Amino acid sequence: MGRDADVVVVGAGPVGTALALDLARRGRRVRLLEARATRPPGSRAIGVHPAGLAVLAALGVADELLAAGRPVRRGRAWGAAGPLGDLDLGALPPPYRFVLTVPQPVTEGVLRTALARTAPDALELGARVTGLAQDPDGVTVVGRGADGGERRWRAAVVVGCDGRDGAVRAALRVGRRGGPYPDRFAMADLPDGPELAEDEALIALARAGVVEGFPLPGGVRRWVVRVGRDDAAPPEGGPALAAWVAERVARRTGLRPAPDLVGGASAFGVERWLADRFAVGRVALAGDAAHVLSPIGGQGMNLGWLDAAALARAVESLWDESEPTGPRIAAALDAVGRHRRRAARRAIARAAGNTALGRPVGPAVAAVRDALLAGYLRRPWSSLALARFTMGGLA
Ligand SMILES: Cc1cc2nc3c(=O)[nH]c(=O)nc-3n(C[C@H](O)[C@H](O)[C@H](O)COP(=O)(O)OP(=O)(O)OC[C@H]3O[C@@H](n4cnc5c(N)ncnc54)[C@H](O)[C@@H]3O)c2cc1C
Fold first, then answer.
1. pLDDT < 50: residue spans in the chain
2. Which residue of 21, 126, 238, 248 is surrounded by the most CB atoms within 10 Å?
3. Does the reported pTM lie above 0.70?
4. Which domain holds residue 253?
5. Does the Cβ of 34 fall within 6 Å of ligand 1?
6. Are residues 68 and 101 in the same domain?
7. Is the CB of 161 within 6 Å of ligand 1?
8. DSSP β-bridge partners for residue 114
9. Ligand 1 atom 37: residue of nearest CA
10. For ligand 1, is residue 69 a contact (CB within 6 Å)?
11. Which residues, 6 or more positions from 255, have their beta carbon under 8 angstroms from its beta carbon?
């Protein structure tokens, strides 16, 4: 059976699409298989960190994203009794001295358009992968095409970017560790008010649970609140959830966002997972297929882009002179996988810390926590805080 591509990427989320684009730009024949025929509604990721922007700049799409997003240049931290300090993102090294906020569907759209320009035939929609088999000459990916018929795709390398319950990890029989956290959150996109500047994010560690407010393009602010011990379960979504969120923001912070829903609203639990291995033979995992972090801190998609960039570099170097052998491919993917797994462990630990910080606490714990945090936000520690919250050291 002839090869359909040098590399088959499974899953056209933000990570798989970025990887396919990167590989195509490096001259590899790539096929991107996506189970869904249309993108799901709703927005998950909004935060694009400097490290993520650097990956996107190398793919030639940073300018489009910058035009579509809103830069956050200052993070304001409040404790139980008032302001603790600010993080000035202007102190980051150039060129990206901010975190950009862009709704995930916009980001995915920019990446897909760039892929269509670079490799018009790469993306296959409605292609659901169900398994794969490796042999000394390559990998056969099996699944169903858009017409429901059985399909096979043949490649030298396969990367599973098929999300938290991915079929590729299952086919490799790679286990994972982790599970859910006890925390539950509700979020709603509401009109931005005048209390915070349009380039400011707020993290308020209220005693009843954290409140976060991130500016979005178009005069919108995404509010995320932790469901407190005494809260009744929030409504599932829609205007009722927007009103629920606005009421908690007001009660916990004194700010009064209008309870009008102008974007998404959802209630969600958080979890973490880490695959036992990120590569087996000619097959690698990247993005949520390899690691799921608590979204508090907003780093999962960005971490996936760093996986993708490392994999694309490794794959390019494999095709240096001649067709790479199976053992050479396996060694290269294994080295990248080990490196990325270490980064993912660090990111999961940081995200777990961010999540724990926002839990409801009593007055004594709040006083100690807030005093320590106020110190952490001052020089010389503020540079550590800045690196921690902007994904420093995870490339
Ligand atoms: C509420 C929330 C907020 C978040 N905020 C942020 C943030 O601000 N910043 C950040 O960096 N991250 C954030 N994240 C995390 C981020 O959304 C994920 O890490 C990111 O979507 C992972 O991208 P991915 O491409 O790896 O996987 P996914 O986005 O899950 O994409 C996987 C793709 O694979 C396809 N697929 C699945 N199975 C198959 C199959 N068998 N065959 C073919 N295709 C298949 C799916 O249809 C999907 O398109 C947030 C997450 C949540 C829940």
1. none
2. 21
3. yes
4. 182-270+358-389
5. yes
6. yes
7. yes
8. none
9. 162
10. no
11. 193, 195, 196, 202, 213, 249
